[in-house]
Amino acid sequence: MNYRYSSRLGSFSSSAVREILKLTQGDAIISFAGGLPAEEHFPVAAVSEAFQRVMAQGNKALQYGLTEGYLPLREALCGRMAKKGIRVTPDEMLLTTGSQQAIDLLTRIYIDPGDVILVERPTYLSALQVFRSYGAETVSVEGDSDGLDLADLEAKLMKYKPKMLYVIPTFSNPTGKSWNEERRRGVLELCQRTDTLILEDDPYGELKFGDASLTYPSIFSLAPQVEGSCVVYTSTFSKTVAPGLRTGWVMGDADIIRNLARAKQAADLQSSTLDQQTLYQLLAHFDLDGHIEFVRKEYESRMRQMAGLLREHAWPGVSFEEPKGGMFIWVEFAPGIDAGELLKTAVQHGVAFVPGVSFFSEDPKLNTARMNFTFADEAGTIEGMNRLSKALEKFGALV
Amino acid sequence: MNYRYSSRLGSFSSSAVREILKLTQGDAIISFAGGLPAEEHFPVAAVSEAFQRVMAQGNKALQYGLTEGYLPLREALCGRMAKKGIRVTPDEMLLTTGSQQAIDLLTRIYIDPGDVILVERPTYLSALQVFRSYGAETVSVEGDSDGLDLADLEAKLMKYKPKMLYVIPTFSNPTGKSWNEERRRGVLELCQRTDTLILEDDPYGELKFGDASLTYPSIFSLAPQVEGSCVVYTSTFSKTVAPGLRTGWVMGDADIIRNLARAKQAADLQSSTLDQQTLYQLLAHFDLDGHIEFVRKEYESRMRQMAGLLREHAWPGVSFEEPKGGMFIWVEFAPGIDAGELLKTAVQHGVAFVPGVSFFSEDPKLNTARMNFTFADEAGTIEGMNRLSKALEKFGALV
């Protein structure tokens, strides 16, 4: 039959980049492309034990649960927030299928076709896709290594009257950069003044490198209170425990949370009861902070290794900044290099990354790439960087 | 701040009914309201064992997986389908967070605001909510106890040129009724001829009562082939294994499945890897068919108990049909009774059901109710029906 898809289908269309990256799933390719944590460090024994505790509680563990999510897990998360000085109640929190779902649900209840959403330049590609699928127009705000450019933000708040600003202020995807506190406060103040909702996406905030005394307060925590706050905050267990449990959370004004829950009920009724209860038992009986500390150090050493190799290889015209946390190094190649084209050669040489083009709302910088340093181990990273070096040589000879 | 919600938020608004049903969560209320399976029969030991098998396979079990879902589980499901004579490949199947998500994703990729979706009268309330949230207009087609009225369907296909028809032909929610084969073939033929996509929702098909030799072939299985089929089929493990694992699947033409996967990537990247792998191990090592056989018999006996009590109480003007499977009895009270108002009195007496009003696309029959018979045990059902009897007496005296 002749299928008559919706007009929004176009916004979900597969990109050329995604088609190439599909080729990288095999073992033959060393991938710096995905945002995958190091699976050898997943706390498998602790997850197993937590699951057994859930099962020991009887059959109710497998029944339908609340759309808002398992209450004891929300309470435990509120406890973790309190330790960071964030006072939030379970009514101000919704559990989601990863933080991706929080982005989708908030857009669903808040954005009408034609609304403007301001974003960073560059920003998380799957957020851009969600925004566009609901008919939003995305406009990017300039920034530097300290965060958003407040003057440009103010100008664009005036010009576009956006409904929402989407940011990843701590160890950004894709750039790895982290805003200083002044920029966080400045952005909060401007958005408060203009009734602009901030969606603060914070999947990487716990993966901090270097000086432990340095802190990066979330914008959410800088707002005077959660009630009536212009900030909605989302995070996830995908990077600190494991992605396979697909559990994230979103916090904000109770009215927004109630509306998100209604949208979630239509979307999937609720996320996995079993995964949420397992995470609750894990938080209760496992030293998650100790585990995060361990993973942080491991990721910092992997980041330093990749940064060191970038310096050693010293490809002509390449530049990057060492991130202060997270999972990615953002690389700029020499101006003439189209990283999308380079990827094709790289995959032939057995290595992959994500070309920067997909992370831009408009005017993409084609000579950029996102390199993940958390997934590959030491030997893999050395070999992958050697392969990339050969690919660049070959590619340079071709262009 | 002044929140500026999207116009589609209205479609998610909480109904008065839902607000009342929130009161029924405590133990003091006997609930015939939810569509909850009997939790005392969940195969907890088998789920536990399956989980341990997953964990024994190592850390990859907790890593990100494919948006389409865990391939071995899709293959195993294809095997189960083959036994029913349905030939489908893993490329023609997507795993979802329950079948609710399949309804949401298909609507997202297929429906534009203003498009018409035909539905049964009455039909699943959360499907109506999803359709409206994407701006669809829903129009219901008349039917009788054998299924949709083919003449009315044909007339409405001509009049409204709908993009989609949504049906639950086997042990419907809320009516429990099951279409005969002639109606299934008739609907398929009419929709094929008019390029109308059929979304066949089949969460209850395995819960068949009575003569085992009776079969209810899915409309999906009656189509000549999956490629180019006008039928998209969704089902779930929520009713046969347990809802807490939140795993459903959707089958259809490979192009539709590819597009659903793109939409799912934006919605939540993927469903729980852990739950999908656990279900795979369960299918491989547990006699699921034997378990379903056991649950069927148990549910049939619960249905007969509730039907018997309905006959015994013999409330003035009440009528119902015994369902041939599923989880619900659809009750019509005397014409003057507004079941929404009755519910308020019922909750005061410690019993709950769902008033029929929410299941109608238009012109609701206010004197109807959906009664679930699978959740409460024998003693609970007797007590609940006694309470409902008292509520009706009191209510009758009031009106």
From TrEMBL, chains A, B:
Residues 39-360 form the Aminotransferase class I/classII large domain. GO terms for molecular function: pyridoxal phosphate binding; transaminase activity. It holds the Pfam family Aminotran_1_2. Keywords: Aminotransferase, Pyridoxal phosphate, Transferase. CDD domains: AAT_like (cd00609). Its cofactor is pyridoxal 5'-phosphate. One of its GO terms (biological process) is alpha-amino acid metabolic process. PANTHER family: AMINOTRANSFERASE, KYNURENINE_ALPHA-AMINOADIPATE AMINOTRANSFERASE, MITOCHONDRIAL. Homodimer. Belongs to the class-I pyridoxal-phosphate-dependent aminotransferase family. This is PLP-dependent aminotransferase family protein.
